[in-house]
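Predict fold of DUF465 domain-containing protein; 85 aa.
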Amino acid sequence: MSHVPHTLAEEFPQFAARISELKQQGGHFATLAERYYEVNREVHGAESGLTPMEGLAEADLRKKRAALKDEIYALLTADAEGVEG
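Predicted 3D structure, encoded as tokens:
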């Protein structure tokens, strides 16, 4: 279990510039990114003991973070494929 926050740029370093660009544009990606950061902060708080939380609630937050990360990755890779192809 890591006690370090997982930023999107750290999770997807190959897309760091694109993440920043899409967040600045607003829209669906920016909304997903903000939700990811909110959930990520909650997970980090639980993992570090700053926010007391039951194990099942923490596990649910981790699942939510993973689902958001999957959706964000899908958007990043779909966009990259559209640019390349």
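The mean pLDDT is 88.
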